[in-house]
Write a structure and sequence with these properties.
The complex is a heterodimer. Chain A is built from 5 helices and 9 strands; from the N terminus they run E-H-E-E-E-H-E-E-H-E-E-H-E-H. By secondary structure, chain A is α+β, with helices and mostly antiparallel strands. Chain B folds into 3 domains: 7-203, Aldehyde ferredoxin oxidoreductase, N-terminal domain (Aldehyde Ferredoxin Oxidoreductase,  A, domain 1, 4-Layer Sandwich), CATH 3.60.9.10; 242-414, Orthogonal Bundle (Aldehyde Ferredoxin Oxidoreductase Protein, subunit A, domain 2); 432-628, Aldehyde Ferredoxin Oxidoreductase Protein, subunit A, domain 3 (Orthogonal Bundle), CATH 1.10.599.10. Helices cover 44% and strands 13% of the residues of chain B. Classes of the chains: A alpha+beta, B alpha+beta.
Chain lengths: 163, 629
Amino acid sequence: MLKTLIVDAQKCSGCRSCENYCALKHGGLCNPARGRIHVVKWEREGIFVPINCRRCEKPACEQVCPKHATYRNFDTGALEVDAARCIGCLNCVSACPFGATFVDPESGEVLKCDLCDGDPTCVKVCPTGALTFEDLSKEAYLKLIACADQIPLLVREAIGRQE
Amino acid sequence: MYGWVGKILKVDLTEGKISTEPTEAYVDEYIGGRGLGVKLIYDNYKPGTGALEPGNPLLFNTGPLSGTAMPGSGRVDVTALSPMSNLRAKSNFGAYWGPELKFNGFDHLFITGKAEKPCYLWIHDGKVEIRPAEHLWGQDTHETQKLIQQELGDPEIKVVCIGPAGENLVRFACLISETGDAAGRTGMGAVMGSKNLKAVAVRGTGSVRVAHPEKFLELSIQVNREVRESPAYQELSSWGVARGVQMMYQMGFFPVGYFEDVCVDEICQKYAAPAYVEQHQLKNVGCFNCPGRCMNFLSVPGLGKGVTSCEPFSGFTGAVWNLDMDTFWEATLLVNKLGIDCTETSASIGLLMELFHEGIITEKETDGIPMVRGSKEAILTTIRKIAAREGYGELLAQGQKAFTSQIGPAAVEKLDLVKGLAPHAYEFRSFHGTALMQAVGHRGDPLPLRGSLLEVDWNHAPEWFQQVAKEQFGSEEAAIPTSYEGKAMSAVISEHLERVPDNLGICKWIYGLFAYQDVNMALRLFNLATGKDWDMAQLLKVSEKVRNLERMFDVRQGLTRKDDDLPKKFFEVPLSKGKFAGEVLDRAKFEKMKDEYYEIRGWNKETGIPTREKLVELGLEAVADEVLN
């Protein structure tokens, strides 16, 4: 079974390790702006949301690419960009419904998460468990459990009881 | 260059002039961060310039490891002449601002002069603008950051700013970044306010290059894992210091009130921070690229959201006899938003309460508000009045000394200050190494120093930590709090260790105290990042040089041995309660520790001033020529 990167934004502390280690792994530089994952932060609210490629079943980025530079790596499930074919039109960036396709601010190159060939660096360094690497089938299941977990609490709140 | 990004940015606010200078010429001698900051301020501060005059340079210093992909790389050292002590100021903040400055290609930011009207600096992708800030003047620190982000249209801009306290030149105003990470001590907010500078906003997309990316990545992933696995960080990352502070009270390391007496039973039994954190904590947060999350993000209905780290947990509880945690949180948010140093503010409130308790002042001196120990009204009103310089806050904003001088000799007698600042609130009567480090310390910083922490740790497992002390400082006695032996060596070594992470621009809690107890890991990361091949001796030699140059800056300001002292309370009034009941500092033994310290340092014992030989040995001959003659 393929594994995928699962984001649980509630756990994120906004440290941006994932961005910086990602840039170091892929580009040999320390620069969060070159990461293939990005944390959107609302500091005063304590809300931090890591945004990463969702590896869609019908990927908009792949469909809009005029040069077929974006393709799926069937070993990992990741959508990758063939730099030799890419013409830098950024259609994929505009088409992504999540804003999860990034651009290198210096070279203009498209940056997409390649799951580090099946061993994601960001998962290794995420301190809070906001990023995990799990079986694809577990993504829905884990979400289900997390939501179901809330239900007794919501019911108690609704009927005004503390226990 | 690897590690360093190459330039020192210089901004002259009077002329509106912006220039740069290469960093490279300095790095082999001073590395960066605090060390290079000391060199720059020593060279550029003209003796005789007042702390709030335009000529006082304000420096933000990152190091070669700031912004790199490794834990704790978010630290910035801030320095200027301090309006509190008239010596070199030293403050340090974390969060996300420093790396962002480096991504602009600047290692240091050097600000002089005074703008005609309120302004703020906007540094983006290597470009620098001085922008008007009249509309921001008067806004609190949270609001200022939000308004700047909105005005420039980018929520990822990082801002370090002053609040109303800094604008009003409160001598201990601080700088605030994000929701509460502060360059707290020594009055950097007042210096920034005196320049009519409201904020420095940064946003960069450049890179910090490292010399050996693959090895660096491998090692920093290992460090990331080791930090997460260390028991200290597991505690800090879930509780912050809330439970640690309770422990400090129980072992008598934190005094209650204005250094009154340790271990007041009430606070040990009723200290409610852990429960409060459990109830109101949204999550724990930390600095750039750090798996450690030492700061609590609390959201209290009706009072608000924000971040706090260590100081307020004792400053707004024990130090002001307060057990009500809502008052603690309101006070914490208030000092963060107004931009005043929590440590100095809580000490000032403690002083008022002490004076009131002793009958030296009545509510007449404090605008009709009785300074009853622990009173919520007293705590919150005093904070507001200091920041606004209103009523009795006008004098208090100039420091505790100015206030007591106005009241009279009986009040002056009560003052507990070290080099013009409120000392860290530790119990020096029973922790003697800590006392020495506070007295001789550059600004007075016993924690975070390794030697002081060992004295605290000793309480958990005496024999174990005596062994550690023997290995690290050459004497078992160094770990025993009440002993006077071995402390001088422990102070010297600890000071050198402490300056390593400061010079590199990284967190000293990780590299030297909690995750790693020495600086071997910092050295390995430094070599991999910069491509240099330094050994430990070379790294520590820079620390020693920096320590001596710091001292010479202060000597040039008139500092001598007699300033390396503690309030007389610690020599006269023994502790009456707790584990260390009966302990008091012995003057002769205390002075002997100082003698040993100066001797190891190669400083003159009579004056406390570095000798010419020492300075020449460290390559500071020009400094010796200037100051010693």
